[in-house]
Amino acid sequence: xxxxxxxxxxxxxxxxxxxxxxxxxxxxxxxxxxxxxxxxxxxxxxxxxxxxxxxxxxxxxxxxxxxxxxxxxxxxxxxxxxxxxxxxxxxxxxxxxxxxxxxxxxxxxxxxxxxxxxxxxxxxxxxxxxxxxxxxxxxxxxxxxxxxxxxxxxxxxxxxxxxxxxxxxxxxxxxxxxxxxxxxxxxxxxxxxxxxxxxxxxxxxxxxxxxxxxxxxxxxxxxxxxxxxxxxxxxxxxxxxxxxxxxxxxxxxxxxxxxxx
Length: 261
What we know:
The protein has helices at residues 19-28, 44-53, 72-83, 105-122, 134-144, 166-175, 191-198, 228-239, 243-257, and strands at residues 3-5, 31-36, 57-59, 91-97, 126-131, 157-160, 177-181, 204-206. The chain is an alpha/beta fold.
């Protein structure tokens, strides 16, 4: 029984002092593969360096919406240069985040659409971050779906750290995406637990978003990939199925989305 953490920032400075132990704990927890989403230009080299450290890592490239500012076009240009030099497994972490600041909303939308087009051109999945931006995200995806290589092809990828409602989850799934479920599902009164109960297991992938949003009982502490089985256990309880089934189905889905077979 193996798991895949489809979203973990283990290259961040929070892990500099004990990354070897973090990797070991992940492997001991049967987390065999870990997707490393990029944030901005400054995080690329650390991410690439870590991905070379162990074959459990799979890097991606993208500009996070909260990293979009007046200099975003330069960042996009630099990230695009890396697309020609580095083997990646997705475009991400990209998206629209209007939770804290709407100053650069138009720039966020343009950056998002530009990077979605990269994914279309390169036939890569997307890792999409959304906070208070579902309407804009769906509008942009709808505008770009005609650019897919064939009329019967859908988008692929993950709506990471899903924070929407049931209808938004259904719409994302219909467009071809999986729903990324992490530690929030273990929080008391989390609406994510209800959504997880209502969508098919095959439409779910597991993630930690380490070092952020650790599951109970580690809430408030540093998150890490070895906590994936806690999330899987919670989903097994919500759906009243064996944890082995959660591991098997979510691992297969993640392998298919990110072409990891």
